[in-house]
Specification:
Length: 152
């Protein structure tokens, strides 16, 4: 656990520094000293870690999900970072997700049709197909979240 704890503390520090110490204090409601203890490598603070709600608040403001990414790496999980941070929450729900999904799927099929014309999918064509596939995956995640909201 010592290696894992140290690894998480380094990423916690990166998260706080990404957001900035003063804004991090405001977002979490914690003092500078408390935030410092969460990433301190001193023996008396080795068992102190940032609460998950504070991590979530900071990662919302950060440029990258440092702690979530570190946790995923520790479990051998690969994350796909969605950088589509909209300025306004989307008003649509499942119905608009279905429309966007069908449009994206049509674009994927058109891209596939164009890529396979010569019987070989080149590296660049594969990258374009992968990009479309990832966009479809993001739409499906949005749809899942909307369905979970509606089922509550």
């Amino acid at each position: 656990m010592a290696g894992v704890g140290s690894y998480l503390k380094k990423h916690t520090e990166a998260l706080v520094k990404d957001v900035g110490i003063e804004p991090a204090c405001v977002l979490t409601g914690k003092s500078k000293a408390t935030l410092g203890r969460y990433y301190s490598d001193h023996p008396e603070h080795m068992d102190r870690f940032m609460p998950i709600d504070a991590v979530a608040a900071l990662e919302e403001a950060a440029s990258y999900p440092h702690v979530t990414s570190a946790l995923a790496e520790l479990k051998g999980i690969t994350l796909s970072h969605d950088d589509r941070r909209a300025n306004v929450k989307e008003k649509g729900g499942v119905n608009s997700d279905v429309i966007v999904l069908s449009q994206r799927f049509a674009m994927l099929m058109a891209e596939y049709n164009q890529s396979i014309e010569d019987g070989v999918i080149s590296v660049n064509e594969a990258k374009r197909l992968l990009r479309e596939t990832l966009l479809i995956q993001q739409i499906l995640i949005d749809m899942k979240l909307h369905l979970e909201e509606e089922s509550v």
